Amino acid sequence: MINGATNAITSTIPVGATPSSLAVDPCKHVLYVTMDKPAVVGVVDTTKGTVGTSIPLVASPADVAVNPATSLVYVTEASELAVINPAGPTTTDIPIQ
Asked: Is the distance from CB of 33 to CB of 46 less than 8 angstroms?
């Protein structure tokens, strides 16, 4: 965790062995962390500083983004775009051609 006023690290949250990218949903106070092994998106509650659900992916993720208006999470994989609705959580994989 980082103090926004001082930019000092105040604590760390263990999310897994291979975190690769991050995205924040500022409305829900949630941090999404992609990991390669296993291929998952970790869901971190930033108000509590705890890791909750791990959402499985088809392949190793590259990047992650969040649409704060819809709370949908977008993850690029090798040949797919995973669209995650964290309310379920449900994942829809869209082939990239």
From this structure: no
How is residue 7 written in tokens?
A: 């930019």
CB 65 within 8 A of CB 74: yes
Nearest-angstrom CA–CA distance, 70 and 61: 21
pLDDT digits (tens, 9 = 90+) for 4-24: 899 999 888 888 888 999 999
List the helix and strand counts (H, then E) for the chain: 0, 8
Confidence (pTM): 0.89
Write out the two tokens for 60: 């190793």
**What are phi and psi for residue 53, nearest 5 degrees?**
-70, 150
Length, in residues, of the chain: 97
